[in-house]
Amino acid sequence: MATTDAASQTKAIELKKEFDAYRHADERFANNFDKYLEFIDFLPDATFIIDRNSRVIAWNRAMEKMTGVKKDDIIGKGEYEHAMPFYNRRRPMLVDLICTENSEAELLYNFTQRDGDTLYGEAYVSSVFGNREAFLWAKASPLYDKDGNLVGAIESIRDITERRNKEQALQESEERYRTLTENVADGVALIQKGKLLFVNNAFVTIFGYTDAEDIVGRTAVDLIRSDCQHDFEMLLAALESGGVSNNTFQGLSLSKDRREFWIEAQNNMIRWNGETAVLSTIRDITETKMKALAFEEESHRLRGENIRLKASMRYRWRLGPLIGKSAVMQEVYERIHQAAASDANVIIYGESGTGKELIARAIHEMGDRRENAFVPVNCGAIPEHLLESEFFGHKKGAFTGAYSDKHGYLDLADNGSLFLDEIGELGMNIQVKLLRALEGGSYSPLGSAEVRHSTIRIVAATNRNLINQVNMGLMREDFFYRIHVIPISLPPLRNRREDIPLLVEHFMKNHNTGTATQHIPGNIMDALFEYDWPGNVRELQNVLHRYVTLKSIDFTSPHSPAISLEKEQTDRKYDPITTLSSAMEQFEKKILVKTLKETKWHKTKAASALGISRKTLFRKMKAYALI
Amino acid sequence: MIQSSWHTHCFMVSQSYPEQVFKERQIMNILIVEDDISLSASITDAVRSWGHTAEEADTGKDALKKMNHRYFDLILLDIFLPDIKGHLLIPEMKKLWPHSNIISMTGYNSRDLEREVRKQGVIYYMIKPFDIGHLRSIIDHMNTKALH
């Protein structure tokens, strides 16, 4: 216990000693206050001290140097009694001091209050020293005596003009660059870690936004259409890893209103805030791109056309389902190639049974619409008042309370071909409506206000002379010109008899089911040659079909005129001979046909057998409609 | 499809159908391919009452068999037959008789179905229930054409 007491006594004595030491130091400080004031002379910053009455009581050498005011001229003069430097919203008296009469001082930073009534001040002041414009930083703090009473204040000022000038220069250059980027026509964006850090006005406009705030911070790849996003991400990744040869990106972008457009972005890797970033300049290249694509398409088309034309130049004995090596058919093939290479409307003229639908299908299959539907329409098969819904469709219940819609030809043939067979049968009323739909590209189904659009290629066919139809007022002229763009004339079979052997061979193959090609006896082939074929190739096909099934040739069918070979020959035998010349003509024709048959319609051979020139034979064949 | 209600809905006789008088009338042979017996019978009755001949087939197979034996000017072809989709039958029919006119009939319709049927070439695409007057006007039209 005694030890503890002794210890605490010792401690108390030590504390007392310490306290005394402090007190003495304090007293010394108070006594030597004037001496301490001298110390500020050694401070590197311009410094001064004022007392409570705002009288300057210290003014160091740096201060003298900065302001040019001597210590002796200011200390104790009391010229600044009105100044209260350490209160909020008051200017430091320093300002008054350093301002020349005509200078404008600007206080950029006001005094702030901290720790209750303990006040510190900090100010930026721009002023004029003599002839020099200066920018000053001033800081002040209060002085207290040992009882905590405010006795004065100390203030240091520093000339920061140079630093300030540098900052301003930096700011100006930044401003310049900003103005530059904002005013270039190209879009500029800064991308870091996939996010947009900065975009310029042009960039905002290109993407259809009004405010940069709407885009900044978003993921850059979101502005790219989904199928192009991968390419863009790969490019960004490649740029960031360095070593990229091509830094250009072309792809489809999406605007704010989901409009798609082509952009080209030039990307450069830069460093931004110590990390890698990508600086992109972006241009909207939709127009150029569209032109390029159209050009590409056109050159592709021309290439195709070239191939087709080359193919058409070759002599051929068939084209798809069409059979024939005659000169007239070569011409037809060439017309088909031309029609297939174009998208214009086609009209096929030819007698019934010549294969107009086959040609229409061939044109469709060879053309650019082959992926879409080929829809055949028989214009003459049903009355006009029923045709309208067939073409344009009708909504359920429009007529009969039906449960289903009828879509109609135009809807089904959209982007495809509509084959209008027997177009000469089409009534005037439906011509008007069809023309309107084809020209304007829009129409409405019956019983509906819905407007539909179809892009359709018309391939029409007729066995009539449409010009006559127009002249007779049965066909509208404008409708005629809409249809009659690429005309193709199919010859009747009797004008290309040399194709009959090929056709016979073809149809016999078709009719044969696996067994060997059936032989056609010579006399039957002769009959096939001589017949006039009013039902054309289709009639030949039917005749051969019946020959295969019934083993006999007869030229009657429900839909070819009921003329048998026998009957025709009998008729010819008993043709009433009216004049000598007509008798001569008939005889001459018979001789011609006989010889041609013998030579298998080889014209040069026939001509030499008859002892006439090839030219004369030609003229005579023409006269007797043998060509 | 419910037979009884379908029968009453199968077609409507339009009140205003103008009675056409032909000086000459060609008798048309018509084949009705329809598995709904009551609808088939109704059409047959109507067609016969207009002075034409009619035969009925209730399957695709039956139809082809009948067509093998004779020519029909017009075939009314239901698309949903028990043994085959009607439009798959059309190429077979055209092989036999390229000149026969075919009218397809269906109560259910879709764009794809209509395209498949029309691609085969039908003169009319009939949505059931239909106006019997339309059928008559088509037959009369064929008649007029045949006479010219």
Q: Tell me what portion of residues of chain B adopts beta-strand conformation.
A: 15-25%
Oligomer: heterodimer
Largest sheet of chain A: 7 strands, antiparallel
CATH architecture of chain B: 3-Layer(aba) Sandwich
Largest interface: A-B, 29 and 30 residues
Uncertain runs of chain A are 80-121, 557-577
Describe the structure.
The complex is a heterodimer of chains A (627) and B (148). Chain A is 44% helix and 19% strand. With 627 residues, chain A is of the alpha+beta class. In chain A, the strands form five sheets. In chain A, strands 1, 2, 3, 4, 5, 6 and 7 form a seven-stranded antiparallel beta sheet that branches. In chain A, strands 9-8-12-11-10 form a five-stranded antiparallel beta sheet, sandwiched between helices. Chain A has a five-stranded parallel beta sheet with strand order 16-17-20-15-21. In chain A, helix 22 packs across helix 23. In chain B, strand 4, helix 4 (86-96) and strand 5 form a beta-alpha-beta unit. In chain B, the strands form two sheets. In chain B, strands 3-2-4-5-6 form a five-stranded parallel beta sheet, with helices on both faces. In chain B, strands 1-7 form a two-stranded parallel ribbon. Chain B is of the alpha/beta class and 148 residues long. Chain B has a single domain (27-147), classed as Rossmann fold (3-Layer(aba) Sandwich). Classes of the chains: A alpha+beta (627), B alpha/beta (148).
